[in-house]
Amino acid sequence: MDKIKNYINGKLVGCSTKQLGVFDPSTGEECAKVILSDSEDFSQAIKSSKQALNEWSNTTPLKRSRILSKYKNLIEKNINDLASLVCKEHGKTLEDAKGSITRGLEVVEFACGIPHLLKGDFSQNVGPNIDTWSIRQPLGICAGITPFNFPAMVPMWMYPIAIACGNSFILKPSEKDPSCAIRLAELFSEAGLPNGVLNVINGDKAIVDLILECPDISSISFVGSTPVAKYIYEQAAKNLKRVQALGGAKNHLVIMPDANLEQTVDGIMGAAYGSAGERCMAVSVAVAVGNIADELIDKIHQKIKRLKISPWTYKESDMGPLISKEHLKKVKNYIDIGVKEGATLIVDGRDYKLQGYENGYFIGASLFDNVKENMTIYKEEIFGPVLSVVRVENYEQALNLVNNHKLGNGTSLYTSDGEIARHFSTNSKIGMVGINVPIPVPMAFHSFGGWKQSLFGDHSMHGTEGIHFYTKLKTTTSRWPKSIKDGPEFNMPTN
To answer: Are residues 48 and 132 in the same domain?
Structure first.
């Protein structure tokens, strides 16, 4: 059985004898063991990162960019193998896995422009013969803690930009599907990245806490659930680290009576049930405005019947299994609670079975109607293929639903009315908004991040927000007088 080690200083290593099973979600079988790193492993990663930092931070942005460009080409060349690693340990369909890697690759492409992105500002004669300029310099050692649902994309939201900015980086991937992160690090070394600039350390909460407490680490990036994001934020801030911690979501898709219903239903199907709902941008609440609900639910119901739920090895699969036996139990429990609290279960996915894969973590798509604001399935993130329909009388009620929820990651509106669309995009208290777009994930040259309890910290991820997060600003004010004639100044200087 494969043993997944750490990738430290350009080598696969590991001191700890503790291991955790990695499972194939399609079969439920253990496919590998991953090392659960200890303090000695962590010390190796820190030592390696510190040794590499000075030389790398002094490497010119142009040389960094050339290595990133080679890395981009290697990812493209190896995308099928990388996607297979994701599928085997996560359960995604092959096309979904390749799409997620491509979205990560776009961040690498963005980071290739680092010579331009790190250009500073200059102002001449801010005072008599006085000039001021600002530059951005690396933070030092940065760390990333990433979730199971996107084992390639989310890490690539972090380390390419951090490394392009001149930092070294320690990545702690999810212990549920760690293989792709190791392979991505190996490819970066193959592209010419010096040893120690990117280290990957596997482990559980013990390693997370070492990262949070380590004085040598300058910043922490995190994506996961809201309770853990809050914990990361609090502990990182307490230890004087810069932090961006992205939490959970309860994304609403509002359907106006004038929406193109066929397009809306197609959008909802992909956004609610794609990747088995294990996306922080998944649509989990459909808000039906006016009299559109009955027809909307009927069309969704009919499309659910045609969903192909199967392992990633089936090319026509629309949706694969959930990540683990524990998560499968959790999602089923949410459906139980929804029924108990009075929501109408239109489609029940709890008893879905696939011949030959009875031990896999499969669940069918589920659909609830008549969901109310006080219900658990409305308030909490389920992170599975469960869609709740909430009926409201008018647009104002729909907007209030969106704005009153404690989570504010993403939202969408389907309409043919430009005035309503503009009002919604302006007044929804959400970080990412889609108009006739079901999953409004920004491109790499913009930035990804929610509001409210979906993001703790001041910076979103990638784009210019990423550049600012992984650098610190330095401003210099300078003059070169031949002599000082006027003597000391005791008042606040003004221009």
So the answer is: yes
d(CA 399, CA 38): 48
Nearest Cα neighbor of 16 from 29, 35, 2, 3 is 35
CATH number at residue 426: 3.40.309.10
Decide: residue 342, CB within 10 A, 0-12 exposed, 13-18 middle, 19+ buried. Answer: exposed
- Sheet containing strand 217-223, edge to edge, reads 11-13, 6-8, 198-200, 168-172, 141-145, 217-223, 242-246, 455-456
Question: pLDDT (tens digit, 9 = 90+) per residue, 398-416?
Answer: 999 999 999 999 999 999 9
Q: What angle do CA 304, 310, 313 make, to 5 degrees?
A: 140
User: Taking a C-beta distance cutoff of 8 angstroms, is the pair 268, 283 a contact?
Assistant: yes
- Answer yes or no: do 181 and 301 share one domain: no
Side-chain-facing half-sphere of 146: CA atoms under 13 Å? 26
Task: Note whether 269 and 414 are same-domain residues.
Answer: yes
Whether 280 is catalytic? yes
- Residue 31: name the closest of 353, 362, 356, 324 by CA: 324
The domain boundary, picked from 380, 404, 435, lies at 435
Q: Are the C-beta atoms of 349 and 363 separated by less than 8 Å?
A: yes
- In the predicted model, is pLDDT for residue 128 greater than 90? no
Mean per-residue pLDDT, 386-401 = 98
Q: How many angstroms separate the Cα of 246 from the Cα of each of 144, 158, 223, 298, 317?
A: 12, 12, 5, 35, 30
Q: 454: left (phi > 0), else alpha (psi -120 to 50), else beta?
A: alpha
Q: How many CB atoms lie within 10 A of CB 420?
A: 19
Distances (CA, A) of 130 to 124, 475, 477, 482, 485: 7, 13, 7, 13, 16
CB 84 within 8 A of CB 183: no
CA distance 456 to 401: 22
Catalytic: which of 87, 112, 214, 280? 280
In sequence order, what are the residues at sequence separation of 6 or more whose Cβ sits closer than 8 angstroms to the Cβ of residue 106?
Answer: 443, 444
85-100 pLDDT per residue, tens? 999 999 999 999 999 9
Q: Two tokens at 203? A: 């482990």
Q: Are residues 347 and 329 in the same domain?
A: yes
pLDDT at 17 over 70: yes
Same domain, 466 and 425: no
